[in-house]
Design brief:
Length: 433
């Protein structure tokens, strides 16, 4: 008893008791547009119909809390730029802002802080790598639309004379290899290995490296020959970061970028394929944490997209069998249609079930108006699976927070999205909350 109180006194005197566990590695994963209906939908989509129970997913295993996402204006509905700025810097901003506050002052990001601490830094996405979410960790711009200027910051915002990010995997060649400036060449001049085809992923053997595998975003998972491209890139990133063996550890940001894009497109099968690749990536990280417990993983979303609901009429059903049978995205399906197309046959081939006569007629009526044809295809396909969409934009519902590894307890319960970033920062600094 005496010994214990002596230890307690020593501990209080040294302040060791009050410091937080300091993770060596920090992995921050963002499912763009991944509101609660997406993780719920994913659970049912993955359910094994042969068993009585509904199997849980990686999201169910790691759930710790929720977060509000409202931007620094009076709309409550955030875009990806304002939310990414909040998640990257801990400060709210206006919709469209990249790494700056409402007064247009540049904000330091978690990634920049990690680099200053001597950590290796990495970004892995399926969008162009200068898209709003990854951009907010590196660049400062008054508008997410200034894509060339934002790409420039990936080279121009240096720490100790070198680019801030040691590993970049994603898309966006057209913004990095431009006629006015070849940023890829500039990265190579800094000693970066580079690759421009996802098949070359295995040829990247050490940091620093940049792999941009498409002109803009990577192909949608549902339409891709390599649907597990995010999980493959995640594995690669962890291998390279481990090989680098930096004594200060690493900061890795991974984005499931296109969950949002499928949500904007109101295409549930497209969204579930993106969710699957994102979930697999989280499982890759989960395994890494088992072997490297000195790692913090935080997963969240920047907002929800589409007002997705898992039922649309008074019918009490949401049909994952219909969702699972869809072979390509609605956009890719519309791309197949020309004047001579046999619509009924093509639908059966790509969706796995026949169209009812009134749905066939509705689609045929709009064959000459691509926009109207797309909207009709959304309505028709949503009707069969009984999926609901209220908007082709974002909605204001809270998102979930998932965490694992060292310090994950800090993210329990409700928090604002700025608090997620602030808490990661406190953990990185080993400071008390
Ligand atoms: Zn969006």
């Amino acid at each position: 008893m005496k010994k214990l109180s002596l230890l307690l006194l020593l501990c209080l005197a040294s302040q060791a008791c009050q410091t937080q566990p300091r993770p060596r590695n920090v992995i921050f994963m963002i499912g763009d547009g991944m509101g609660p209906a997406y993780t719920t939908g994913y659970r049912y989509y993955k359910d094994n119909p042969q068993t009585e129970i509904v199997e849980t997913t990686v999201f169910d295993r790691l759930l710790v809390g929720t977060a509000s996402t409202y931007p620094d204006d009076d709309t409550y509905v955030t875009d990806s730029a304002a939310s990414a700025t909040a998640l990257a810097t801990g400060v709210k901003s206006y919709n469209g802002a990249i790494g700056i506050d409402a007064a247009h002052q540049p904000l330091d990001s978690l990634l920049k802080h990690a680099k200053r601490q001597g950590k290796d830094t990495a970004i892995v996405v399926t969008s162009e790598i200068n898209h709003a979410t990854p951009a907010s960790f590196v660049a400062h711009n008054e508008s997410r639309r200034n894509k060339d200027a934002i790409a420039d910051h990936f080279i121009d915002n240096k720490i100790d004379g070198r680019p801030m990010v040691d590993l970049l995997l994603g898309g966006g060649q057209q913004y990095f290899a431009r006629s006015d400036r070849n940023l890829l060449q500039e990265f190579e001049n800094f000693g970066y290995q580079s690759g421009n085809n996802i098949q070359q992923l295995q040829e990247l053997t050490q940091l620093p490296a940049i792999g941009l595998f498409a002109d803009t975003g990577l192909p949608r998972a549902i339409d891709s020959d390599t649907p597990q491209r995010l999980s493959n890139m995640t594995e690669k990133a962890l291998r390279l970061l481990q090989k680098s063996n930096n004594k200060s550890g690493f900061f890795l940001m991974i984005e499931g970028s296109q969950i949002d894009w499928c949500g904007h497109a109101n295409d549930i099968a497209c969204a579930m394929h993106e969710m699957d690749d994102f979930a697999r990536s989280i499982e890759v990280v989960e395994k890494f944490i088992q072997d490297n417990p000195d790692t913090l993983l935080v997963v969240t979303a920047d907002h929800s997209t589409g007002g997705l609901s898992l039922a649309a009429t008074k019918d009490y059903r949401w049909q994952t069998d219909i969702v699972s049978m869809q072979k390509r995205s609605l956009a890719a399906f519309i791309g197949l249609l020309n004047e001579d197309a046999d619509l009924a046959t093509l639908w059966q081939e790509n969706f796995g079930y026949p169209l009812e006569p009134q749905d066939l007629a509705a689609l045929q009526e709009n064959m000459n108006d691509r926009r109207a044809l797309y909207d009709t295809a959304v309505k028709v396909s949503s009707k069969y699976s009984n999926t609901g969409w209220t908007t082709s934009g974002h909605d204001a519902v809270d998102v979930q927070v998932f965490a694992s590894g060292k310090g994950h307890e800090l993210f329990r319960g409700f928090q604002d999205n700025t608090m997620i970033s602030q808490r990661i920062l406190l953990l990185m600094d080993g400071k008390p909350l």
